[in-house]
Amino acid sequence: MIPYIKGVVTQQAHVGIPEGTYEEEFARNGFSGRYAHLYRTDPLVQWLSIEGPLRPQLFDFNKEAAHEADYLKSRRPYLENQDCKILFVSQMAPMKYYFRNADADELFFIHVGEGILETDFGPLNYEEGDYIIIPRGTTYRLVPQRETKILLVESFSEIRIPDKGMLGQHALFDPAVLKTPDPKATHSVAGRYELKVQRCGQITTVTYPFCPLNTVGWKGTLTVWQLNVRDIRPVLSDRYHLPPSAHSTFVANNFVICTFLPRPLENGDPKAMKVPFYHSNIDFDEVLFYHSGEFFSRAGITPGMLTFHPQGIHHGPQAAAINRTAGSKTTNEVAVMIDTKRPLFVSPGAEKIEMKEYWKSWIDQNWANAETSHQPGQRPN
Length: 381
Description:
The chain has helices spanning 71-74, 319-325, 365-368, and strands spanning 22-27, 35-40, 57-60, 76-80, 84-91, 98-101, 105-119, 124-126, 130-134, 139-155, 193-199, 202-208, 225-228, 248-252, 255-260, 263-264, 278-280, 285-292, 305-309, 314-315, 330-331, 334-340, 345-346. By secondary structure, it is mainly beta. The two termini are 41 Å apart.
């Protein structure tokens, strides 16, 4: 890990960028492996065109089709790989059956709504801003009391709390704030109760003469977890822009889930960057779901949208966002980031809600309007 220093650079990463240059982080394993900081005369996100599958994509879940009354039909996939699947769910009425996912752990992020999640371990009241982790094999039923919209991640490995290292086990959130259900047999009336079990993507229906949520007690270390974003305390630095990995909330095999929250910006040093630094997506695909607030690294983004930036193409703030945040002291955004080591693929049907011009939002009009005859390295007038 010996750093080499060549040409025009800054000593401290993300602080005092040399005038007329743009810093780009070129790094392995997200932001924790070997790295290089490249100082360019123009950021490589200022393309004129992109032809092929690597263009950044934006999906607007506000344009979703009408609600499906059936819960399983409402679970619409948008991105997936061998490790996880990213879906969006809209529900207004209580589920008419119980569900068990034998393929994956599930992570709910409640974007809109409130209600009750009935589980093997007991019921939980949910509200906007809640994460709920449902271990693989748990039976549950969603009972909305208000229209509910959920960002849902299926994880084919166990979802865990990240190792917080030298920050200590109480950093980001104290594990004591995690809520767990109290056992309560949900329905005591005899009747016919359907349980739908997903295994290898197929559904098996099991019918009981009693409610399958009939637990009256439980003990152990494996259960349903609930965490609201208001109980997360982001790591801060007054003089240095921290990498996204500092905001990790949950981890699983080959992907991580981070939460970006309202916080003071880097006000302790006038030369410190306040927006995310440009970086080259080498080892991770990046997905960002926008929940609420004003999203300081993006312009033209509203709550309920999701961006996808694949490996192999540059990534960083838009010029409009940089200009808007120059004098800002705080950010009030709430967003969920999912970074995956293996490439994600867009699911069939996702194009119906895609904002197809999104990749153009980085185009520098000075370049776009210039004569195409200028030589490489020659800035247009």
